[in-house]
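Course assignment 3, question 2. Fill in each field.
Student: A.L.
Task: Predict the tertiary structure for the chain below.
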Amino acid sequence: MKSIFYKNLKAFTLCAGFFSLAACKEKSAVRPDLIPPVDNIHTFEVNDFALTVKNLYYDSMWTSDVQYKFVSIGGVTNDPFFGKTQAGLYVQFLPPSEGFTFPTGVIIDSALVSLPFNNFTYADTVASSTLSLKAYQITDPFVLGDGSRKYYAFNKLPYITTAIGSKTFTVKSLRDTTVVFQKDTVGGLLRMRLSNALCEQFRSMPPSMMATNAAFLDFFRGIYLGPDSTVQQNTLASFALSGGSTNTTYAGAQMEFFYHTATNDTLKRAIFPYNSLLCSFFNGIYRNYNGAPVQGYLANQQTLRDSIVLQGYPGFRTEVTVPIDPATIPPSIINKAALTVTLLKVGDDNRFSAPPQLIIRTVKDDGTEAVIDDLLNGDDSTANSSGPAFVGGTALSTLIGGSQYIRYIFNIPRTVQKAISAGKTQLRLRMLIPTAYQGSYRLVADGPGSANNDTKLRFNVIYTKLN
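Answer field:
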C-alpha cells in the first residue's frame, strides 16, 4: 500500500460553535473558546479511560513515486534505542540524447555523479557533521517500463561490490556554493567523483549502446548511492531528483563526463540526466534493530504495550484504542476530546530528535486508515485549511519536575462525537510521523499505565448532556 506523504496535509473547519449544531450532519464539537465550564450538572469531564496501546512496524512505503522526487541518503550507526539505519538511492541515467556518441579518440578526464541537496539533515546536523557515501554500479535491469511496477523502502537490487566512487561530505559542504564547469556557480550540491574504471567503460562503449535509450539502460543499469557501512556516522540527508536547484544545469540528479580529444584539448562536458519519464529510481531504507531495545517491539507487535514507539517510515506507528461506554458518556455534545502524549527520555534524544509534528488518523474496522473527522468540512467531503491548527499535534515544550519534556496534544471532539453517534464501542486511533523526510525522526512516549501522572498517556473528554 502506498504511504501517504503528509508534508502538505490539509484539514477541516469545525462547524462553528455551540449554537450551530443544525448546520452539521451530527452534533458538533464546540470551539475551544466556547467550551462551557464543568459543573457536573450539565457539563462533565471524563479522564479515566482504559486506553490500550499497540506498536506496529510498517515498511511498505512506496519510494519510487515519480510525483515525490525527494530521497534520504545516509547512515545512523548508534541510536541507543532504535539501532542502525542505512538509506540509499537506486537511480538510472540517460545519455544527453539518443544516438549520442563521444568523439573519436576521446579522452575522458573525469566523471561525477551529482544530486541537489534539499537542505535538510537529521541526527548529526551541525556544519562539521559528516556523511560518508559510496557509489556502486547496479547489475539489475530495473527499467521503468510502463511505470506500473512499484519499489518500496525494503527493496534491494544487486550491484557490483567494488565501489565506483566514494566521498565524505560535511553538512557545510552540502550547503556551500560550488564552482563547476566554465565557472558555473551552484549552491547546495552533492558531487562525487567516479572511478577511472568507469570512465574507461564509457570511453570504450560501442556506439550501438547509446543508439537508443533502451540499449543504454541495458548497458549501464544505474548507480546505487548509499552510506559507507565501514564508517561510524549518524547523518541522514534529503536530496532532490529534480527541481532541486535554481541552476537549471544542476536542477536534478545526473552524471557528468568531462572530456577532450588528442587533437583538441578544449574541455567539454556531457550530462547524463535522470529522466522521470524514462528512468527508474527508488529510495532503499533499511533498519537494523538487532540488540537495540526496540527489537522487542518488532518481535511482539500484537502485544499490548505501556509505551508509544514511533519512527519515521519505514518504522513504527502506534495504535491507541479508546473504549466508548454509554454509561460513561451518555448522549451529549462533545465539547473537548484531547489525547495528550508525553515523550520519555531514552538516550541521545537531542541528536535523534522527535518530529515537530505528529499525524493522527482513525482506523477502520478493516484496519485501513481514514482522515479524522476534525480535519474535514461539515459535509465530510473535503478538507479545510483550519483543521490542522484546531487538531494540533505539534511538539510543545513543557516543564515536569524541573526538566524539559516534549508533549503532543490532539484535540478531536468531532471524531469522538461521530463515533458515539454511530454507536461504536471503541475508537481506534493511529499515530505516525510525517513522511516528508523518509526515515527521519523517532520517539518513545509514556503509556496509559504509567505510575507517573505527569507523563502518562491521557484522554480527556468534556461533554454537555443533551436535555
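Instructor remarks: The chain has two domains: 21-60+291-465, 70-279. Helices lie at 171-175, 196-203, 213-219, 295-299, 387-391, 413-421.
Grade: pending
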